[in-house]
């Protein structure tokens, strides 16, 4: 497994980047991050889009100074929880906010980006947000997406309590692709997981006999993967489901009361952009549990990912 890159010498939650716009979901996200096991350093980032006139015209100094004051307050609060905190304010006159977040993640050599979901649309599913979607699509490091219930629907203290148990029951999805195999191998290095539910969803087969054959093969492969995870000290429960991967993963997470869903991306294309598979995107947008999106590819994994 390739461990070259920013995560090679640190755990998945060691150095975390948290972009914030000072909204309620963003405040709850900070409360959550403060309680995640293993978090040591947090970089708080606020990006100001200076490509358009503000209420002060083209002068952005008031917004920048106000952001610094608000970040200083958050820093003092989180340092009181025993974390090392750094703050960054960036004003961009070109590009976009997502690109600035990703540039900061690379510059600061973070091991994880944490963002919150925005809530539900009136039509369908979760409104994930354009900035978060771009970070998901283009990022090179793992992304933890907190569900709307955590980032916006709970009181801050309740949010923190829930996130303190985020590793207690992890559902890890695999399709047995090379990307997914690297992700499940990565899970062996994550310490503090209480129980690990390993799931594969069978999507192939036109007859009952063909479906049964795929189910048997999946069970054998899951058992093999489970042995390696058990050898690393994890309690593993393999599951094979049949149907639509997005629906099955989300439903199983609810039935098993999973505290976190771990799922990976497909890889990178020739433009160096992450190819986010439809399953990963569907789980992130429609799930009601926190989702840890793991990256495959050089420098992207140190100890989780699957699609």
Describe what this molecule looks like in 3D:
- It is built from ten helices and twelve strands.
- It has helices at 24-35, 61-79, 97-107, 130-138, 148-153, 156-163, 178-187, 208-231, 245-255, 278-286, and strands at 15-19, 41-49, 84-92, 112-116, 143-146, 169-173, 195-202, 236-242, 260-264, 267-268, 274-275, 291-294.
- Helix 8 links the parallel strand 7 and strand 8 (236-242).
- Helix 1 runs parallel beside helix 6, helix 3 crosses helix 4 and helix 9 packs across helix 10 (278-286).
- 39% of the residues lie in helices and 21% in strands.
- It folds into two domains: 1-163, HUPs (Rossmann fold, 3-Layer(aba) Sandwich), CATH 3.40.50; 167-307, Rossmann fold.
CATH superfamily of the largest domain: HUPs
Domain count: 2
Relative helix content? 25-40%
Question: Which regions are unreliable across 5 or more consecutive residues at pLDDT < 50?
Answer: 1-10, 119-127, 267-274, 303-307
Which features would summarize this protein structure in a list?
307 residues, alpha/beta, Rossmann fold, 2 domains, two-stranded antiparallel sheet, 10 helices, disordered N terminus
Can you describe this structure in just a few lines?
By secondary structure, the protein is an alpha/beta fold. The chain has helices at residues 24-35, 61-79, 97-107, 130-138, 148-153, 156-163, 178-187, 208-231, 245-255, 278-286, and strands at 15-19, 41-49, 84-92, 112-116, 143-146, 169-173, 195-202, 236-242, 260-264, 267-268, 274-275, 291-294.
């Amino acid at each position: 497994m390739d461990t070259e890159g920013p995560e090679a010498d640190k755990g998945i939650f060691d150095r975390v980047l948290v972009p914030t716009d000072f909204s309620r979901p963003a405040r709850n996200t900070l409360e959550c991050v403060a309680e995640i096991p293993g978090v040591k350093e947090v970089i708080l980032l606020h990006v100001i889009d200076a490509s358009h006139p503000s209420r002060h015209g083209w002068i952005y100094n008031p917004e920048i100074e106000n952001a610094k004051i608000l970040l200083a307050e958050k820093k003092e609060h989180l340092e009181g929880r025993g974390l090392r905190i750094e703050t960054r304010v960036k004003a961009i006159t070109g590009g976009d906010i997502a690109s600035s977040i990703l540039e900061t993640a690379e510059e600061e050599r973070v091991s994880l980006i944490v963002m919150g979901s925005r809530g539900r649309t009136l039509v369908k599913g979760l409104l994930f947000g354009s900035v978060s979607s771009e970070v998901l699509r283009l990022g090179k490091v793992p992304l933890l997406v907190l569900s709307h219930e955590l980032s916006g629907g709970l009181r801050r203290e309740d949010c923190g309590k829930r996130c303190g148990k985020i590793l207690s029951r992890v559902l890890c999805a695999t399709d047995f692709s090379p990307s997914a195999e690297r992700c499940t191998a990565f899970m062996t290095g994550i310490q503090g997981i209480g129980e690990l539910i390993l799931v594969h969803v069978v999507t192939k087969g036109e007859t009952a006999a063909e479906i049964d054959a795929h189910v048997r093969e999946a069970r054998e492969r899951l058992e093999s993967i489970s042995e390696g995870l058990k050898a690393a000290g994890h309690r593993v429960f393999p599951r094979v489901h049949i149907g639509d991967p997005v629906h099955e993963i989300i439903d199983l997470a609810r039935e098993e009361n999973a505290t976190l869903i771990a799922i990976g991306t497909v890889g990178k294309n020739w433009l160096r952009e992450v190819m986010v598979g439809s399953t990963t995107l569907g789980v992130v947008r429609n799930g009601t549990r926190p989702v840890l999106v793991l990256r495959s590819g050089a420098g992207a994994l140190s100890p989780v990912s699957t699609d």
